[in-house]
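Work Package 4 report. The design task specified in the project plan requires that, given a folded chain encoded as structure tokens, an amino acid be chosen for each position. We show below one input record used in the internal validation round.
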């Protein structure tokens, strides 16, 4: 089911003029759902879906441990390319049919 909502997020981001570079990018440190670029900014997206808020919001599921894995993947990804870009970490929360895009959801020092 997760890949379905990652596709929903990808389509939404493309409509917001984000160029999608990678989906489900994996490295030794973990995985990033979507990597995109908008202008001179390289964006690492974490996508979370919740059908209801019984266990908290979708965005609240992106804890410090998950953030550290995404940051480690970003460091690996940018070590080989995109060294001239500003890097940002964003979150996409999908609850029912509502999409929420949080820019700068967390930072490298998370």
């Amino acid at each position: 089911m997760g890949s379905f909502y990652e596709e929903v997020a990808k389509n939404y981001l493309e409509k917001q003029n984000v160029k999608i570079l990678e989906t489900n990018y994996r490295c030794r440190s973990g995985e990033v759902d979507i990597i995109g670029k908008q202008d001179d900014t390289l964006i690492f997206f974490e996508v979370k879906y919740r059908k209801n808020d019984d266990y908290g919001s979708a965005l609240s599921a992106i804890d410090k441990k998950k953030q550290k894995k995404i940051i480690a993947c970003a460091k690996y990804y940018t070590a080989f390319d995109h060294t001239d870009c500003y890097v940002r970490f964003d979150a996409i929360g999908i609850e029912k049919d509502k999409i929420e895009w949080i820019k700068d959801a967390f930072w490298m020092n998370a």
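The CA atoms of residues 20 and 36 lie 4 Å apart. Validation will be extended to a larger panel in the next phase.
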